[in-house]
Amino acid sequence: MAEYVIIGNGTAAVGCIEGIRSLDSEGAITVISAEEHHVYSRPLISYLLEGKTDTERMKYRPADFYEKNNVRVVYGRAAKLDAKRQVVSLEGKGRYGYDRLCLCTGSSPFVPPFEGLEKVKNKFSFMTLDDALALEKVLDKKASVLIVGAGLIGLKCAEGIAERVGSITVCDLADRVLSSILDAECAAYMQHQLEAHGVSFMLGDTAVRFEKNKAIMKSGAEVGFDILVLAVGVRAETELAAQAGCEVNRGIVTDTKMKTTVPDIYAAGDCAEGYDSSIGKNRVLAILPNAYMQGRCAGINMAGGSSEMTDAIPMNSIGFFGLHCATAGAYPEDAEVCEERSDSGIKRLYFKDSRLAGYMLIGDVNRAGIYTSLVRERTVLDDEEKEKVKKIPSLAIFSSKNRRKKLGGVV
Amino acid sequence: MKRVYVNEEWCLGCHLCEYNCAYANSGLDDMVKALKGKPIFPRIHIEGDDGITYAVSCRHCTDPLCVRSCIAGAISIQDGVIKIDKNKCVGCLTCVLVCPYGAVAAGPDGAAQKCELCLENSCGAPACVTGCPNNAIVYEER
Questions:
Q1: Which domains does chain B have, with CATH numbers?
Q2: A409 at the B interface (CB within 8 A)?
Q3: Yes or no, beta carbons of B93 and A319 under 8 Å apart
Q4: Which structural domains are found in chain A, ordered by start?
Q5: Are strands A78-82 and A167-172 parallel, antiparallel or unpaired?
């Protein structure tokens, strides 16, 4: 009977468990979880503060998930990974041998060494359920909040707490919001939406040093606050992998089967650097769907099956105060950009080499998945098809024969 | 498992399936009250181009991207039928982002919705199929 050990208890771990159990119902699975919670949906922490979910509903899998899958969960922090002896040791007591192991260690907030940060009392990261619950305790209708970082995490935090605090200012060294997923025009559109809901911005400027309740900005400006949220960025948790001798770059380097460079050790999710087909290179794709799919792929391979991740691409669906935004793929500088604007949003399509390389939709995101599939499957489009793609995402893009396969058979 | 399949050469583009779907999922027993003068949110839609029309609804894929991608763990496969737990859905629309068929959309309350084959509502079998005047959509094993 195989012994499987999974380090981490997030989305990738669930994928890994479900991947293993799709082939092996007997093997022993041990999950080592640093967070003392049943697996929960990490991106839902902002919705929790917004009151759109609660700790019960935000469980990523039902309460009987571990039991049903015959998984032993050990709460503790893995301290040492010995790849030679194939043993994981926890901080304090506990040693677990494995035949095959998957690192699902995720990422952790990156906090630059700000001068004076230690003197700030109400400071928070916004990554985990515990972070959100701690932040919730200090929320106050009169409080002014400074969020450092206008990325996905910082802005979802802003939305989540907007109705529960007095004011919110978000600063970022980048000159636009959501700079990792939006171009300047789409970013400006989203920024306007956030401003209309009371969020203020200081862009191209960031905190460099802190006094007790005050941030001193790069520009010299001073911003007072009651609550500070640090959402500058995240870093893949790669320490155990490095210890075990795995090749580590920005994340733990994996092949398309999610194997690391050390035998019997796999990696999946935000800690892993897997293949991104939109750029044809390895890269950390820290998005939830990818974490699940990489985990599942790893699990299937760990159980002796065969699975490969060859079509992962960056993609995001994110909304603020009811305005949705969908993005996917890559945005090459030499791409042909096709733009449509209306009162209710923007559509920008990036074409390159007779393919849809990437897109950004703000407002109407209906059927965005058809665009995503064209990007993911690298579908080659002739001129006529391209014109159809420009109009609206619909299955009319495909030939009648192709459509018959999609709508007339089991897919 | 029985699924909804499309015979596009027989589709008249009459949109009746959309109305029957919206009515079946309204929870009301009067079609006029359910639909008249209201924006409707059917889980099937007619698409078309150059004289060809066809209905699109959830394919209940065997390897569904929506289930794998849902950030809330709100979408699951139960006996082959893909279901959305509205209670868990936060309306992020990641499922809309990934569905290659464009078959998932936000419903009236912002939560994602899609065809669940009318198995849970009072119809018990897809209302779109029952009401299609030209057998352009069928509910069968393939």
A1: 1-57+116-142 (3.30.70.20), 60-114 (3.30.70.20)
A2: yes
A3: yes
A4: 3-44+58-108+235-302 (3.50.50.60), 117-232 (3.50.50.60), 322-408 (3.30.390.30)
A5: unpaired
ipTM of the complex as predicted: 0.97
The closest of A103, A133, A125, A130 to A37, measured between CA atoms, is A130
Task: Note the residue count of chain A.
Answer: 411
For the record, the structure tokens of A308 come out as 């490969």
pLDDT band with cut points at 50, 70 and 90 for residue B119:
very high
User: A244 is written with which tokens?
Assistant: 């075990």
pTM, whole model, 2 decimals?
A: 0.96
- Which token pair is A226? 């009651």
Window A:357-396, CB contacts with B under 8 Å: 365-370, 372-373, 388, 393-396
User: Buried b / exposed e across B89-108, counting CB within 10 Å, b at 16+?
Assistant: bbbbbbbbbbbbbbbbbbbe
Predicted confidence band of residue B79 (pLDDT cuts 50, 70, 90): very high
Strands lying side by side in the sheet with A3-7: A71-75, A28-33, A3-7, A100-103, A265-267
Q: Could you tell me the two tokens for A25?
A: 């119902």
3-state secondary structure A3-45: EEEEECCCHHHHHHHHHHHCCCCCCEEEEEECCCCCCECHHHH
User: Does A408 sit within 8 Å of B5, measured CB to CB?
Assistant: yes
Distance CA B67, CA A61 (A): 12
Per-residue b or e along A187-215, where b marks 16 or more CB atoms closer than 10 Å to that residue's CB:
bebbbebbeeeebebbbebbbbebeebeb
Q: What is the C-alpha separation between A241 and A47, in angstroms, rounded?
A: 32
Interface of B with A in 66-105 (CB under 8 A): 68-69, 71-73, 87-88, 90-102, 104-105
What is the residue whose two structure tokens read 């629309």? B93
